[in-house]
Amino acid sequence: MSILIDRPTSVSEGGSRPSLVSRLKPNVESLPTLAAVVIFVAMVVYGEVAYGRIVQFSTISNLLINNAYLIILAVGLTFVIVTGGVDLSVGAVIAISSLVGVMLANQGWNPIAVIIAMILIGSVFGTASGVLIQYFNVQPFIATLAMMFLARGLASMLSTTPERLADDSPIRLFSTEWKVIDGPKINDLVTTPNVVIAALVVLVAFLVLHRTRLGRTVYAIGGSESSALLMGLPVVRTKLAVYVISGTLAGLAAVVYTSKLGIAQNITGVGWELDAIAAVIIGGTLLTGGAGFVLGSVVGALVLGLMNVLITRDGGIPPEATTIITGAILLVFVLLQRLVVSRKRKT
Amino acid sequence: MAITEPIVEMEAISIEFPGVKALQNVNFRLFPGEVHTLMGENGAGKSTLIKALTGVYKIDSGTISVLGAPRAFSGTADAQSAGISTVYQEVNLCDNLSVGENVMLGHEIRGRFGINWKKTNEAAHDALVGLGLGDIDPRRPLSSISLALQQLVAISRAMVSRSRVLILDEPTSSLDANEVEGLFGVIRRLRDQGVAILFVSHFLDQVYAISDRLTVLRNGEYVGEYMTPELSRSDLISKMIGRDFSTLAALGSNRGRAVHATGKPFYSAKNLGRKGFIDPVDIDVHAGEVVGLAGLLGSGRTELGRLIYGADRPDTGEVRISDAITEVHSPIAGLSRKIAFSTENRRDEGIIGDLTVRENLVLAVQARRGWARPLSKREQGDLCEKYLVELNVRPADPERLIKNLSGGNQQKVLLGRWLATRPELIVLDEPTRGIDIGAKAEIQETIAALAGEGMSVVFISSELEEVVSLSERIVVMKDHRKIGEIVNGPDVTAETIVDLIATEGNVA
Amino acid sequence: MSRDSSRASSESIVTRVIHRPYVWAIVALLLLLVINLGKDPAYLGISVNAATGNLSGNVIDILRASAPIMMIAVGMTLVIATRGIDLSVGSVMAVSGAVSMEFMSTAGGGTVGEALSAAALALAISAALGAVNGVLVSVVGLQPFITTLITMLAGRGLAKVITAGQNTSASNESFRWIANGTVFGFPVVFVIAGIVVAIVAVLVRRTALGLMIESIGINPRAARMAGIRPVGILIAVYVVGGVLAGIAGIFSTASVMTVEVAKTGMAAEMDAILAVVIGGTSLAGGKFSLTGSVIGALLIATLDKTIVFLSIPSSATPAFKAAVIVIICLLQSQRIRALFARRRSGPSSLTPPPRSPAQPRKESVSA
């Protein structure tokens, strides 16, 4: 194909200035993510001005430590939502996974085996959702809703009371606080293995999405599933994979969450699927699929986390209203996406 | 060009879908280094044949050989790995990704840390250069380039997978003349490199400009294979549209009876149009008159019909009904102004498959009455009895699910749905397509009878003979605009329309 | 001759019932009752309280418990028929309960008027939540699941805000009568539920609404071409769904005169979806059966009671119900059907419909 023949002039579209225009173009795609960053910064500034003590080591450390599980969940959902699907089961998967994990640990299982079991529980639920969706044509929200109730129900069968993880359990080591910078008084920059795990997950997910054929197929499916099929891409395998990834990461999030809290309960994680979806959407991933960034979802998760901090600091907003606010934010972003997409179609 | 062994050979291919014989005994062969055009009107079976070749549809009988060996592909991907790539009219690429990614998807060049984007984009660039598209930056988003270039990107993609057969399914329908020329340049270049190209188009000028050989299909049947220079345009058109004199013989022809086109028209539109859809058109329809809309596929004949009914919202024009200015911007608005529209797309826009014949039949009447005033069982029964008998629907069982009826009988039920609304103007888009000959003749008779009762009819068909024998006046469409209007008379034949379409040059 | 035809018609009624998809639900219902009878032969006994004339017994309890499920199942049926879904029903139940309890505990008079006002207010807010869903789905064009997922979680939050996060109780005998009272010996909730179902049935089946809903669910484009206007119908369907969930909320709070904001209506959407699919309405939309959903609701209530009766921990029910949904979805899928079809009539008839997802569509050429 390397034979050079005169190019037909009529098809060239004056695209001989790739430098500036085309280099800026991808940034237009990532506008929503930038918007999320702007919102995050604005919230930080507002919080600092209104309540103070936001831009400081301890707050930042806590933000990351408290939201590590949410970041992991959001990363998993990014895969699913980029293909145009959804996974409603992640919150319930955390419940069953952490409950099983704590109970096994308390029965004296090897902590490594426990952790592997917890992660695999997530994988199993993800696989089940994926098989239902891909092989039996069940709509994603129905399949994952069923998995959500199945997981929640099984968790409730195991126990309806909080199960406490022994304080000396090795699993809790994941929430060991490492002092990175010793600040004045308690104002230290600390991190935990959990945060490191979340960061690794983000890094690996980023590489998978952007530097592997699997990742590119995920985007291609979200752009147009029928085109992806016609291009001969492994659509079936990839769609199954995203649900397995989402489930597995939910299992991992359960490990992270359990190690931090030390308690597992059947009602753990109620409504977290909404938080995770909101984080992904706020971070600029299109609900209809095809566009999105893992890093955006991280920002989205931090926006939600910071919102909780601000609500607590404010004190005037009842904590019960949190889900309303999350819901409202999600709605606003979904509406914005709808607007942007319909604009784009018109031009 | 001296190779005599065909790379693809399809013999006696037949495919049957429930109620439709999509392909019957069709032959097709494709040689390396040639452009072979598949010609035929809408529903002739062009797409079906391509899907049979690529394994999207299973064939019921016949053989497919590639390079002399019998093959049965399991789908597009399978065919692609055997070197047969397809580029569709609506460009099946992902416009959320970059040009380079689209070219290379599934063939990305990988390094130690996953995909090496630098090398991948270089490879994409090389592929683009191979088609003379060297000045498209592979990193540009696909959505930022024109549809014509996207088409060429799709071809580059096929070349990356080293295809020896390239199927181009209606690649030119949304391109302008310059873009078409550019595409043809690329096609010729690939042909000279020995790629076998299967080209599908219904634009005569383009077919003559690019193809070496052509195969004509009609109604799922094989008409013949011809060397392009040896077949005149009008011969080609008549081969495509066919002549079914037998079905028309029984019909009292309207020819030469343009008696209604006097006085005030019942329906009159000036500059009726919609941007990017159809250029403004003037059209009048008198009471009791059949106005035919003629033109090849993609000429804008369907689009005009949709605007008249309000299926799509017109953005220019003034409509008068019975001399009163009015607006028709939605189906229900059309219905309430006594306009009816029978769609060409029976499956997606016509029947409601899981409902019964009765429910399908009364639906439009019911929609116009509103939900709160349901038709009684008795009224529904009366409507069914009247139209199932009148239109000879078989089986005449109102409680059968419509999806279980044959195509012709579904069409009759849909016609009944619209007639039940007692329209004063009915727009019929390809009412006789894809149905058996008996049902076809019955529907043609019904149309003539309706006009005889004073109904205005706009009749759209790809079969020019049918249009000529039924219409009093014929509006001829080409390239999304009206290119002429013919008052039917004894000396008007299908050739008259063919000549008008063939001579009216392509507007660049 | 006439005897023959009458036999034919009676046969066709039997075969028709057998061909109804909910026939399995009836079988399952009977099976559950048999299991219960096995444990306690007097399970189906109904006793009449001589003093009050009230009926009591397990069957009556089942009827009582089925009332709220019936309400949300009927609403969900209509929504699903339009190719939608309403995940917010449980939260709307909680909001409705919270509104009425908060209103009555604030008013505190315990009068009939207050009970009526509380119910009216609760239903009005439920209708408003339904309208929000309907507008977002039909006018704005959001996907039903994300729309109702948002109202589901925000609705739960709203219920908590209304009661300031507390489980709120009120005392009002008239309101309580709704759940605990009887009419001619039957529980009031069941009577009301029956009346409401009848009203909805008349509304959709005696008008053309049902036909239009089914048309939209089966083929929205063809429905539009036939002159049906979907926006109004969709909004109406979600509003009806909201109001019915509101009634269910009143039912389930009135019995204890307390709203447990975290628990009332929890997982109710699951019950509703389950009742709908058991009743034979496909999750893909289209044809629906209200009778089927009512039977589905009765089956779920029986199942709940049986689980308690057999002293299986009730926490197992959601898992069990989810499993049932999965099985029904599997049975409805092409793959399994094709498998069964092949079993039944040999491999030659296995010709999947020529509907490929890759089929290019004309209208997509809009650029």
Q: Please estimate the helix content of chain C.
A: 55-70%
- Major sheet characteristics of chain C: 2 strands, antiparallel
Structural class based on helices, strands and sheet pairing of chain B: alpha/beta
CATH architecture of the largest domain in chain B: 3-Layer(aba) Sandwich
What do the pLDDT scores of chain B average to?
Answer: 86
Low-confidence stretches of chain B: 244-252
The CA-CA distance between the termini of chain B, in Å, is 32 Å
Low-confidence sequence ranges of chain C: 1-9, 346-367
Overall shape of chain C = globular
Report the strand count of chain C.
6
User: What percent of residues of chain C are in strands?
Assistant: under 5%
CATH superfamily of the largest domain in chain B: P-loop containing nucleotide triphosphate hydrolases
GO cellular component, one term (chain A): plasma membrane
Keywords (chain A): Cell membrane, Membrane, Transmembrane, Transmembrane helix
Protein name (chain A): Monosaccharide ABC transporter membrane protein, CUT2 family
Transmembrane segments (chain A): 31-51, 63-82, 88-105, 112-132, 189-209, 240-257, 278-311, 323-341
Question: What secondary-structure arrangement, pairings included, does this model have?
Answer:
The complex is a heterotrimer of chains A (347), B (508) and C (367).
Chain A: H1 19-29, H2 31-50, H3 57-82, H4 90-106, H5 111-136, H6 140-158, E1 163-164, E2 178-181, E3 189-191, H7 193-211, H8 213-223, H9 225-230, H10 235-261, E4 263-264, H11 272-282, H12 294-314, H13 322-346
Antiparallel strand pairs in A: 1-4, 2-3
Chain B: E1 8-17, E2 20-30, E3 35-39, H1 46-54, E4 61-66, E5 69-70, H2 76-81, E6 84-87, H3 99-104, E7 110-111, E8 114-115, H4 117-130, H5 147-160, E9 165-169, H6 177-192, E10 196-200, H7 204-210, E11 213-218, E12 221-227, H8 233-241, H9 245-249, E13 267-274, E14 278-285, E15 290-294, H10 301-309, E16 316-321, E17 324-326, H11 331-336, E18 339-342, H12 346-350, H13 357-369, H14 377-390, H15 407-419, E19 425-429, H16 437-452, E20 456-460, H17 464-470, E21 473-478, E22 481-487, H18 494-503
Parallel strand pairs in B: 3-10, 3-11, 6-9, 9-10, 15-20, 15-21, 18-19, 19-20
Antiparallel strand pairs in B: 1-2, 1-4, 4-5, 7-8, 11-12, 13-14, 13-16, 16-17, 21-22
Helix pairs in contact in B: 4-5, 5-6, 8-18, 13-14, 13-15
Chain C: H1 2-19, H2 23-39, E1 47-48, E2 55-56, H3 58-81, H4 89-107, H5 112-140, H6 144-162, E3 168-169, H7 173-180, E4 182-183, E5 186-187, H8 188-205, H9 209-218, H10 220-225, H11 230-254, E6 258-259, H12 268-278, H13 290-309, H14 317-332, H15 334-345
Antiparallel strand pairs in C: 1-2, 3-6, 4-5
Helix pairs in contact in C: 2-13, 3-8, 3-11, 3-12, 3-13, 4-5, 4-6, 4-11, 5-6, 5-11, 7-11, 12-13, 12-14
